Amino acid sequence: PLIAILAGDGIGPEVTAEARRVLDTLGLDLTYEEGLVGGAAYKAAGHPLPPETLDLARRADAILFGAVGDPDCDALERQFRPEQAILGLRKDLGLFANLRPAKLFAGLEDASALRPEIARSIDMVIVRELTGDVYFGAKGIRTTADGLREGHDEMRYDETEIARIARVGFETARTRKGKLLSVDKANVLETSQLWRDVVIEVSADYPDVTLSHMYVDNAAMQLVRNPGQFDVIVTGNLFGDILSDEASMCAGSIGMLPSAALNGSNKGMYEPIHGSAPDIAGQGKANPCAAILSAAMMLRHSLDLPEAADRIEVAVAAAILGGARTPDLGGTLSTRDMGDAVLANLV
Amino acid sequence: PLIAILAGDGIGPEVTAEARRVLDTLGLDLTYEEGLVGGAAYKAAGHPLPPETLDLARRADAILFGAVGDPDCDALERQFRPEQAILGLRKDLGLFANLRPAKLFAGLEDASALRPEIARSIDMVIVRELTGDVYFGAKGIRTTADGLREGHDEMRYDETEIARIARVGFETARTRKGKLLSVDKANVLETSQLWRDVVIEVSADYPDVTLSHMYVDNAAMQLVRNPGQFDVIVTGNLFGDILSDEASMCAGSIGMLPSAALNGSNKGMYEPIHGSAPDIAGQGKANPCAAILSAAMMLRHSLDLPEAADRIEVAVAAAILGGARTPDLGGTLSTRDMGDAVLANLV
Ligand SMILES: CC(C)[C@H](C(=O)O)[C@@H](O)C(=O)O
Ligand SMILES: CC(C)[C@H](C(=O)O)[C@@H](O)C(=O)O
Questions:
Q1: Do B118 and A113 lie within an 8 Å CB cutoff?
Q2: Which of B231, B253, B275 is the last residue of a domain?
């Protein structure tokens, strides 16, 4: 299998290098090809997602993504900003299903702003739709009849888009506690009303999964009050953006959390949920665990190598429990040291 | 001045009665008129916001609102559901500015899911736009060219709508620490890009206020990680719905938090942020503090009686510090007992 390595900006290259090192140790039959993305690509090639990179991403079986974001690019027109590369890849490759696990690693109870006994209960997956919603509807700035500037963005989902992400939610729930929560704002939004109707229709195919519904404002509260109540949450692109970041922060150390963006045929893009952290880039201080765990998700979801994925995940958990800590976790290990700690715990 | 009392459903009447009792004790020149709203109005008059109630709300100088929401009405078509009364009042009366204070009361450190040292730092006001955004744009379910059901809701703001809520944000910041944070999703939404542009334009009139910007996903994280960093946040209707509920829960006891919805000429609707809590309705268990504090906000914002507002707010804080606790706060006081405790602390 061909892996596209899109390391990107800031700490992206450092943490991706450790993920690569862990993969190399497993003796798998993988080939790698590197591509430019984000601010680095804009500076070198004039676009955050150059055609060569898009071509590589299309050819690859999976994409290991670092991070994008570069303060030098903040003033650029939106189409040239680094994050457009992420949106472009999601849309072009049809990566509609974002899996965002949020859990507390044993030993890191003190990293969360929540009380330890509440933080300890966090173990959920947020399944976020990634190629629709108000992100990709008709949008622009128009002039009203009164000559005023008016910004507009259409939120929209059709029933097939809702049904396919609902199925990912139900399938994910089946591999866990069999409980799926769908989050919407059906008391105000027609898009949410259709969302809710279709999720209920799809649930007929999953009689073994218990489905419930919650409004997004309530979900934002419950994630703080009692996050242990959640197992699998399925929601749209915008609500998923907000809630998955909130859930990650409830779990504490965002340096530990990976994510996957999948299409309908196991192709995926895998990336840490943290950003490019320009303030610590190049200093060897970044925590590579999220990148390493993203590689594990890649093995599981795109390459059908669940045992290898398990080995990585257990090694990371063991390293953390054994006390390995980068500065974000209150320790002094370098990025490379943390990679070594994970390697030392591979069984 | 004429006060419309719309007590509504569930615990609404119980908590509003205590607010009324506190107001009566202050010896102000107020007259009251009661109106039906929510599920109670639907059952009595066939509509959650009957014409007589709307007429009363229009005539009144301010509206003291309890809560709406009734499980008997869950299966009704959306237009007849209790929460439509809230949306209808906001729109009809032009109540575009929602002030949502979130703070931790001294003595209630243990009520928050956040660590006490973090919870203690919470003291912010969220200024949420309330009559625009994806709530009130064109919406519906249409059929696509392929014959699919598609839900759509347009997010939109014109520059005058943004400017007037921005001014409320800047004015609010002036009465506090002089820091205003505007929350948007300008990396994805055109509406947010215009929002950001207009907020920056308006900031020219407020050189004494420090303005900053944050994406909504990051704000959802920061509210958990370090809520003490926030003073005044201004944001749109949808983001404000989510973030203000999250902030309330970070502060702990939602039985303590009031809110105001104001138009451009001091008319306002004042309501607890909690709901109708049908499970404990009629049992005298509800915490009336949020309703009492809503009455204080009414005195301050609609009736220009800031000293009377101060007296109420100090009395509530003193009652809590003195140990008065309803069941939601881990105590045994009844709704009426808590009202008595507040009255006993009025100076
Ligand atoms: C960078 C941004 C466009 C992106 C999003 O909003 O989807 C990011 O926040 C994410 O969650 O991956
Ligand atoms: C009841 C509902 C329509 C309402 C809203 O979303 O505005 C509520 O959540 C609120 O925040 O007042």
A1: yes
A2: B253
Return the CATH number at A177: 3.40.718.10
User: How much of chain B, in percent, has pLDDT values that exceed 70?
Assistant: 100
Residue B173 sits in the same domain as residue B298 = no
Domain co-membership, A201 together with A279:
no
Nearest to A224 among B195, B222, B246 (CB): B246
Mean pLDDT of A163-171: 98
Given CB atoms, is B235 within the 8 Å cutoff of chain A?
no
Residue nearest to atom 7 of ligand 1 (CA): A241
| Domain assignment of residue A334, yes or no | yes
Are B157 and B240 in a shared domain? Answer: yes
Q: Give the model's confidence band at A39: pLDDT under 50 very low, under 70 low, under 90 confident, else very high.
A: very high
Both B237 and B107 in one domain: the answer is: yes
Residue B69 counted as domain residue: yes
Same domain, A291 and A210: no
Q: Are A62 and A268 in contact (CB under 8 A)?
A: yes
Residue B223 pLDDT: 97
Q: What interhelical angle do B289-301 and B335-344 show, nearest 10?
A: 50
Whether residue B258 lies inside any domain: the answer is no
**Tens digit of pLDDT for each residue in A181-239?**
999 999 999 999 999 999 999 999 999 999 999 999 999 999 999 999 999 999 999 99
Q: What is the mean pLDDT of residues A14-39?
A: 97
**Shortest CA gap A122–chain B (Å):** 13
d(C-alpha A253, C-alpha A274), whole Å: 10
- Mean residue pLDDT of chain B comes to 97
Known catalytic residues of B are: 135, 185, 217, 241, 245
Domains identified in chain A, total number: 2
- Closest partner CB to A193 (pick from B151, B156, B189): B151
Contact B137, A132 (CB under 8 A): no
Q: What is the pLDDT of residues A301-332, one digit of tens each?
A: 999 999 999 999 999 999 999 999 999 999 99
Mean pLDDT across B283-306? 98
Question: By residue range, what is the domain housing residue B29?
Answer: 1-96+263-347
A5 and A88 part of one domain: yes
Same domain, A247 and A185: yes
For residue range A255-280, list pLDDT tens digits in order.
999 999 999 999 999 999 999 999 99
